[in-house]
Design brief:
CATH topology of the largest domain: Rossmann fold
CATH architecture of the largest domain: 3-Layer(aba) Sandwich
Strand order of the largest sheet: 6-5-7-8-18-17-14-11-12
Radius of gyration: 32 Å
CATH superfamily of the largest domain: Class I glutamine amidotransferase (GATase) domain
Number of domains: 3
Amino acid sequence: MTTPTHQSKLHRRWRYGLFILLLFTLVGTLGYLSLEFRTQWDLSQNSRNSLSQTSIDLLNQLDGPLFVTVYATQQDLQLGDIRGIINTFISTYQRFKSDLILDFIDPIEQPQQAEKAGVKLNGEIILRFEDRTERLTTINEQSFANALMRLARTSKKQLLALTNHGERKINGVTQRDLGNFNHKLLEVGFESKALSFIDQTTPLNTDILVIASPQTALLEGEVAQILDYLTRGGNLLWLVDTGSLHGLQPLAEKLGIVFTPGAVIDPQAEQLNLPLTFALGTHYSAHAVTANFDYITVFPFARQLIVEEDGWHSTILTEVAAQGWVKTNLSTEQQNEVNFDEENDVAGPISIAVALTRIIGDREQRVIVVGNGHFLANSYLGNGGNLDLGINMINWLAGDEAFISIQPRSTIDSQLTLSEQQLTLIAASTFIVLPLIFLICGFFISWYRKRR
């Protein structure tokens, strides 16, 4: 048996010493990097712990500091560490906007500041950008994104919705009205009110005029005012249901649109257990309204529209019923049992929505006509992407293409929240305990080899 020489022992000590030095260097480097840099990976389903591209784009549009003031106590009886919850939520946004400034004020310790700000709830949040402010009482990406959108708009856009002819009421609560859609418009920064030509004492002037499925004929003078508004370059959203145009035939002629009588039959609706008269939108043209839009939309009792080029640049927004047709003489009794009539019916695909533009003076005039009013009604707004498509239409008509986007993702999976102590324990185990275990194992192996 050979005895290790002094030189070999010295070489072995140098090797062990170098190993220990590199080990501590590695641990120290990892500790320094963990303090100086922060990186995270979102492995949750639907990436629920990351910001949607919608929120990131909204942050990029706010050119300047965004001040977020939270009026909250240190602890809340129901929510617990409410400041910690909000701080964690806002920190996600601060990674994309370095000049987002978060400040906390205790409404109990500083009641005068809370009273001056009009704060009524513990945890209330006030956002300030330039000279505009928004107030939040709930904290989630949906509500925060809506607040950012309102802050990003330099001014509130106004909608006037025609009334007094049986139209779908813009703030109505019945199933056929548009109240839920209007509520969403208010959330993202629009103002709306009903327009009655009887009470209208000034020339029709608004960012967007909405004509939503009149049920009785308009007077000639009312139609003349609408045509004058269009001639002056006004933007228009016209929702047309099946049946008569109720005196608006001159408007259709002005726009160069012909409406086919009858309703669309879509056999694909049966696959989703829907009536055949519910046309499904799955194909969208290349347009700002439908950019990156890949959701199913539902159009109950839709009607076909045909565009005749007449001084307008047109883009068909969506086609439905590729394997369906337009039933020109559909009755209530036939809605679930219909067959294609080659002589009278029109084979699909069917165009039901069109965007029109033309240059008036130094600006672009925009019009959208949809052969359906049901898709934005309270009873059908929640189907598929109906709400998103409607909001996109309004944003485009208002000239706010930057705000055309789908809504922030909904939550799918639950969240794992770790306390500060738990995070510290995990970090200590990773950077201290495990390296010590490896070090002890190394010393034990070295000692065991020396004894052999």
